[in-house]
Amino acid sequence: GETCTVTVRAASVADVDADDPPDNMAADHSFSFSTLGLPATIMQIQGADHFSALAGQRVSDVPGVVTAIRPNSFYMQDATGDGNLSTSDGILVFGVTTSTLTVGSAVRVNGRVTEFGSGDNLRVTELDQASVTPAGPGTPIAPTVIGQGGRTQPTVVIENDASGDLNAPGEGGNVFDPAQDGIDFYESMEGMLVQVNNAAVV
What we know:
Blueprint (H helix, E strand, L loop, with lengths): L2 E6 L20 E6 L3 E2 L2 H5 L11 E13 L2 E5 L12 E5 L10 E12 L7 E14 L6 E3 L35 H6 L6 E3 L6
Parallel strand pairs: 3-4, 6-8, 9-10
Antiparallel strand pairs: 1-2, 4-5, 4-7, 5-6, 7-8
């Protein structure tokens, strides 16, 4: 997951013929490349936390199915998940060309894990500096139902065990408790395709 730069020194390169000058390159030549990041899944990137343990690192070959498309970003979700309700199966891929993408298609993404946001606002976990490879038709993603007929959300407690910054690694020492804390409940579905049955706006 690192970027490397190679410089070929002109003075250290000589040709093998006797037709001189020139005998050396006219100038130094440099080129850069990035090594592949850690193989990872969306669930490993998201973790049971508000802040990804992989933030700042490059990851590679992250599989997903496109669930929503915006002009320069898209959401994708793991087709099977890991069965852990505390780890989100979805993520935002930011800063990419989306004109060739379609909802429902499978992709694999290489990119850098970033926590976007500032101040007291909750961060958005995303992949940026990304390259996207089509992977054919995707497994249909069923929306996660919130509330009636699905996962029961906390309706009273926002966060009752906070002692530090929720945006800090390890949730700042707080307990990640999506079963009781509303803020953790919604974090556990960050970037996922969701559905609310018989929704009411008050």
